[in-house]
């Protein structure tokens, strides 16, 4: 093991030593919000909503009254409302708007719900917070039984281009590109594909460069979105006529993934391996490093409660989220100590990037409240309830996984849209697989699994939800559409639910 590997090993050992007991979840979040408000009290946003008055409440005998004031003073924001009222000034170079100073970086994010590009402000404090959690997650590897010789092996991070576009007042690009400029010097030794390849903005060219460089690397860890990493590994195996990826990277042991649920990809992914590997889920969004899987056998990912993000939780129901997936005015919001296990919540975040009570669009569920562990169950706009079936992305992922297992096929991608059918409704599914399969067989089995997973769906299948249509497509169709829309690679994901406009675009693309 080289010197850096030994230092890494030493750091892992130190991370397992007993530490001072942390505050409870409520106290951690109370402290975070107080620091955020104090830091931003003299910004235009802080003065507008009187952060000083909210800060006074932290000295009250009632330790929870500060949150009542915060909720009453500061409205809930979506991207459009926050950008149109405040963030557009940041792009013009104005200082002290929603966070002290000027914003030098913007992460470009278009998500999966619409085609418009979002500009998410990235501050130095935000980058430091992300780096801190990245190191914390790295040190959490001490909880896994890793081979000693794994330490010091290469870490392949398959993300967007690290090239940043410079404007008159700021830099813009993928979050991975912004963070790459802040990578610690010692990490450069482990980091693959290296700065030259990582800067490449042409996804196809980048994949080809990685494939050609693959024999020169000793990779122990891979990091990225499952679909794109699977494509990369398949190309490497084909290029060098291998049986599995372990023939070229025998030390590959850990896969850190995020962005989408991994279960639908697992069967196809594991066919590329010669031996089991460790899977670690992470939740890193443009709005912050939200959670990560803190150890083996955990039920979910641990929310990061002490590092620059204040969380609020909106019960995901008709009273708070309308049929279009938009949040209502003055929704019911809860703090961390008020949540319950097994209930779906929409996340609001206030962060050290000048983000305040911002709905990021994700829906989560607590699986272990004591450990603040969550799973992602979907997005507010990625569910279908045409007639009360309340079908979530989590239901869809589980059903697809069960169908693939029962039919012994690999389903790489899928999407669904709610459509009108005669005078009632239907679901139109598109399933990406390279196996030859009867769509009627898939439709019947998919319908059966969804009825078992979702009682509301089962009831509506006897009334207003009349048909389930399935179209079988080559997997490549999904990736071609992503390329067509300029969303190939990086952190881009195919939308699991197509709204009316996206569905029309998708059909038009297929008809070409």
From TrEMBL:
Residues 303-369 form the GH3 middle domain. Residues 395-500 form the GH3 C-terminal domain. Coiled coil: none annotated. Pfam families: GH3, GH3_C, GH3_M. GO terms for cellular component: cytoplasm. It comes from the Bacteria. GO terms for molecular function: acid-amino acid ligase activity. This is GH3 auxin-responsive promoter. It comes from Cytophaga hutchinsonii (strain ATCC 33406 / DSM 1761 / CIP 103989 / NBRC 15051 / NCIMB 9469 / D465).
């Amino acid at each position: 093991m080289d010197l850096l590997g030994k230092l890494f090993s030493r750091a892992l050992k130190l991370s397992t030593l007993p530490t001072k007991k942390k505050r409870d979840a409520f106290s951690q979040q109370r402290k975070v919000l107080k620091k955020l408000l104090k830091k931003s009290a003299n910004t235009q946003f802080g003065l507008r909503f009187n952060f000083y008055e909210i800060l006074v409440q932290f000295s009250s005998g009632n330790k929870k009254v500060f949150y009542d004031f915060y909720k009453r003073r500061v409205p809930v924001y979506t991207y459009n409302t926050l950008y149109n009222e405040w963030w557009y000034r940041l792009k013009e170079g104005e200082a002290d708007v929603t966070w002290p100073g000027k914003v030098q970086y913007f992460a470009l994010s278009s998500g999966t719900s619409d085609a418009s590009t979002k500009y998410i402000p990235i501050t130095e404090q935000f980058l430091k917070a992300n780096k801190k959690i990245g190191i914390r997650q790295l040190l959490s590897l001490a909880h896994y039984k890793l081979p000693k010789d794994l330490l010091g092996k290469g870490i392949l991070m398959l993300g967007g281009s690290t090239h940043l576009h410079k404007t008159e007042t700021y830099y813009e690009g993928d979050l991975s590109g912004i963070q790459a400029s802040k990578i610690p010097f010692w990490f450069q030794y482990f980091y693959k594909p290296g700065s030259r390849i990582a800067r490449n903005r042409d996804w196809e060219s980048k994949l080809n460069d990685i494939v050609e460089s693959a024999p020169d690397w000793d990779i122990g860890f891979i990091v990225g979105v499952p679909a794109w990493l699977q494509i990369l590994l398949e190309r490497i195996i084909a290029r060098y006529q291998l049986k599995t990826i372990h023939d070229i990277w025998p030390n590959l042991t850990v896969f850190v993934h995020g962005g989408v649920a991994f279960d639908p990809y697992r069967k196809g992914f594991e066919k590329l391996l010669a031996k089991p590997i460790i899977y670690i889920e992470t939740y890193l969004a443009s709005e912050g490093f939200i959670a990560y899987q803190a150890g083996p056998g955990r039920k979910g990912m641990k929310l990061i409660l002490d590092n620059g993000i204040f969380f609020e939780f909106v019960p995901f129901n008709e009273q708070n989220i309308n049929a279009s997936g938009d949040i209502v005015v003055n929704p019911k919001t809860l703090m961390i100590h008020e949540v319950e296990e097994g209930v779906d919540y929409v996340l609001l975040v206030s962060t050290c990037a000048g983000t305040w009570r911002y709905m990021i669009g994700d829906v989560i569920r607590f699986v272990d409240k004591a450990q603040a562990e969550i799973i992602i169950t979907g997005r507010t706009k990625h569910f279908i309830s045409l007639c009360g079936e309340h079908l979530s992305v989590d239901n869809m992922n589980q059903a697809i996984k069960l169908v693939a297992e029962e039919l012994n096929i690999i389903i790489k991608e899928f999407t669904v849209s709610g459509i009108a059918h005669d005078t009632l409704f239907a679901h139109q599914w598109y399933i990406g697989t390279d196996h030859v399969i009867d769509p009627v067989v898939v439709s019947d089995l998919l319908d059966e699994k969804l009825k078992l997973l979702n009682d509301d769906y089962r009831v509506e299948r006897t009334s207003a939800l009349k048909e389930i249509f399935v179209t079988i497509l080559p997997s490549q169709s999904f990736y071609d559409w992503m390329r067509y829309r300029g969303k190939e690679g990086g952190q881009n994901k195919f939308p699991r639910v197509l709204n009316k406009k996206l569905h029309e675009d998708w059909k038009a693309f297929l008809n070409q």
